[in-house]
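Bench notes, afternoon.
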Amino acid sequence: MRRFVPLFALLLATTACGGSERRSEENLRTMDASESNAANDVVMEASPRAPGIAPTAAPGVAFDYRYAFRLPSERIAAVQEQHAQACEKLGLTRCRITGFRYRVVGDREIEAMLAFKLDPTIARQFGKAGADLVDKAEGMLVDAEINGTDAGAAIALANRTEAELNEELRQIERQLARPGLPGYERARLQSEAQALRQQLRSNRAGRTANRESLATTPMAFHYGSGELIPGFDTRSPIRAALAQSWENLVGGVATLLVILITLLPWALVALLGWWLVRKLRPRIQSLGVQPETAEA
């Protein structure tokens, strides 16, 4: 429990609302971040099972985090609940739970998932702290995937495109305002103006989506037990192939046993009949020869 507190020091401290002393708040956050990072460095050195895998934040890049953990099946629910509580403590403005799954695979294995939308400034630390919780529950990080999209460049391109489209639209509107414009020419210009307005709406929607991707960072925790590698690859291909070949061998042997057990009684009857024929054949032959001998 004492190790758990410093890992979430940054997450809990930065939930405070901003006031007039903004500079003091930023200093406090910096101190908390340094303390939390130092604690995580100690954890990573102590246990190589939960490495800190995260890129350095870059301006204008929207990141998408995915972590996969393997734990004992009886501890997955508890760790999943701890991750959910850590998110809830941050408040809805900084962390929201957007997805949840928990299901039993086969007889004993568990597969689960928890998805979040995070404030980008705390996403990296939240992922590292989540991996540490798994490590303390005798689990391990088995896979991590962090993808980045250059949303800033896309927004800049959308702005330039919108400026060009607006200029074309203004030119068409000036032409439409001319007196004595033929009907066919007016219809063509109105059609072009409508197409430009549609492009503007599509361009603005894409720009809004990119801005939202910069405002919140999606993160997903996948949990698995036993041989499961959750969220990325269900099983090791070589191990799965060996397991399948063994199952095929056992199935083939079982089929042969069923066939042998089914045919064995009939085989015994046939063998008994053959034995009786061999035993009785000399007597039958002797009975057939005696009358001929008597007549002679």
